[in-house]
Amino acid sequence: MIYQPNNLLVTGGAGFIGANFIHHVLKTEPQIKIINLDKLTYAGSLDNLKNLPQAERHHFIQGDIKDAHLVNHLLLHHHIDTIVHFAAESHVDRSIASPSAFIETNINGTFTLLEAARHHWLTIEECDPRTRRFHHISTDEVFGSLNANDPAFTEITPYQPRSPYAASKASSDHLVRAYYHTYGLPITISNCSNNYGPYQHAEKFIPTIIRACMKQEKIPVYGNGKNIRDWLYVKDHCEAIMKILKMGKLGESYNVGGHNEIENVELAGIICDLLNKLRPQDTYYRDLIHFITDRKGHDFRYAIDTSKIQRELHWSPRESFNTGIEKAIAFYLRQLGA
């Protein structure tokens, strides 16, 4: 049975991945109406929602996912049948410096959404769970850190979060699963690797590299730069989410990755070399790479095994890293006017 969303509540839809998801859905799913709930913290911007295709199917609400009255009103008034939950505090450095916001948003905010969905779908409407979906966006960071030769994370890898951010996301994952097993709430979960692409916040690694090169400033790289991440082009992630919504098995989680494990210093070098060809200046951009004091508790390596989503839902990333990073660089150069 293929599930078809109609009235979709997207939380955090003015942020990086949420905004890309809204662009994707409006472009590819003509029957879906979107209610976009976003608090518009530093990480969200209405500029990310400019030039939406068929914008009349998108309705923006500024508000907090912890506001139970507002969330309940939206579910009732807009006849929400599907929730895709992106809203989260997500920057590891910020979670180390000030973890309380991560607890409030990522745990208590998710709890508020789950309670609203349970109340409306299972209590008031007494609906068939197969006619509703609550999809929770999570991260590979909940699984902890890998050594160089360890096998990649699978959906059954034990959780071992090592930062306040990762711990808050692990907690929210557990809550979502608990609502499925306890109440029968129709949930799915995805754990993704590092996303990159249009609309990413300037503080993230790839936009930081590009901006530093164009301004001929130092490119900060933690420690010795040998930490490894898997990079996923954001539009591939959006396609995976729609696959999970439509075809995913209730109660299940799916790992979504890009098959691109790259050391941080290597990533910086790749972008520098591309920019030397595209926007040459007096500076050789690799010379701007500057190693800084390592992050506290810095995880060494993340790697995603996508066998399950490939096998069961026939999803795999469309973009290679080479094609994806070229698109990302082009976007940020336009944004910087460079």
Q: How would you describe this structure to a colleague?
A:
- 41% of the residues lie in helices and 17% in strands.
- It is an alpha/beta fold.
- The protein has one domain (7-200, 233-259, 302-318): Rossmann fold, CATH 3.40.50.
- Strands 3-2-1-4-5-6-10 form a seven-stranded parallel beta sheet, sandwiched between helices.
- Strand 1, helix 1 (16-28) and strand 2 (33-38) form a beta-alpha-beta unit.
- Helix 1 packs across helix 7 and helix 4 (100-124) packs parallel to helix 5 (164-183).
- The longest helix has 25 residues, at 100-124.
- It is globular and about 65 Å long.
The number of strands is 12
Q: What is the name of the CATH topology?
A: Rossmann fold
What is the residue-mean pLDDT, rounded to a whole number? 95
Low-confidence stretches: none
Total helix count? 10
Q: What topology, given as strand order, has the largest sheet?
A: 3-2-1-4-5-6-10
What's the order of the H and E elements? EHEEHEHHEHEEHEEHEEHEHH
Strand content: 15-25%
Number of domains: 1
**SS content category:** alpha/beta
Radius of gyration: 20 Å
What is the makeup of the main sheet?
7 strands, parallel
Tell the overall outline. globular
